[in-house]
Amino acid sequence: MATWLRSRRALTALALLCALGTLAAPAYADGSVSALHMGMGAKDASAMMHFDAVIEQYNASGERFRIDSHCQSACTMFLSIRNVCITPNATLLFHAGGNRQKAIISRASTDHMLAAYKPALRQYVTEHHFMDTFELHPISGREMIARFGYPACR
Prior knowledge:
Helix content is 45%, strand content 14%. The protein has helices at residues 2-24, 33-36, 45-61, 107-114, 119-127, 141-148; strands at residues 65-67, 70-72, 84-86, 91-94, 98-99, 104-105, 137-140.
């Protein structure tokens, strides 16, 4: 009986350690916009650093990153991840960077986002003035794949 009780306690402790280890795991483990809940973009310039950190982590690891849902503003910078893919049903929304509440467009934030895009997409959003105002301009995942050459998620 004592052996059974010790085994049970050991298994309980092991289960607890596994659960705590799962809670302590990095939030980036899943590799998708929806898993990270980052589709709404950055609320301010300091929040953009969090997007940069995710991009840096995935570029360093080479792990696949999926743009699989609504992705606006700073979220579109995930397009610079070297192993990014886009689901056809995703929607990416583009606009100028800056402070929407104060209606101040930031050339630096806008350029930071533009630098994350492939040349064809950068040219398109610039020529169509997507990055001149805070108005959101959608491009479907399907179009991002077909027109701008981003890989489709399999």
